[in-house]
Amino acid sequence: MGQELPVYLESMESPLSELANKYPLVLLSTHPRNRIHSSMANVDKLRKMDPEPRLEIHPDDARRRNIKDNDTIHVFNDRGKVKLKAKLSNKIIQGVVNIEQGWWPEHYSEGHHNELTHERINPAQRIIFEPNAAFYDVLVDVKK
Fold first, then answer.
1. Which long-range contacts (CB under 8 A, 24 or more apart) does 46-52 make?
2. What distance in Å separates the CA atoms of residue 32 and residue 116, rounded to the nearest whole number?
3. N or C: which terminus of the chain carries fewer CB neighbours within 10 A?
């Protein structure tokens, strides 16, 4: 891989980057428990358990933005925005937010979480993933 010893390469959209001054939250898009990617997103029984996309956010990050549980919010960056409800949770660390993947565009009231991602080649991930994808390398902010 062109390296004699393991080397740490910072993500392009890292919380340590200049962009974090504008977009301080790291966006994750994790796999949901009840869907396989977007498969089964239209199964009624599963939709009753998980009826709509939500942004998981730590209560302290939400409080700083005057966001309460179930508030309608916008998650955004320079590439796009998505409108959905907030889910306050202590299960996610401060500075990180999560939208489970697999939701179809019509499940959002506006936008889609894929609009927030990018397709630039990140040298830190290119070593592992070929071709590159923007896994956990997306910065955003949230507003009510």
1. 50/100, 52/84, 52/85, 52/103, 52/107
2. 19
3. N
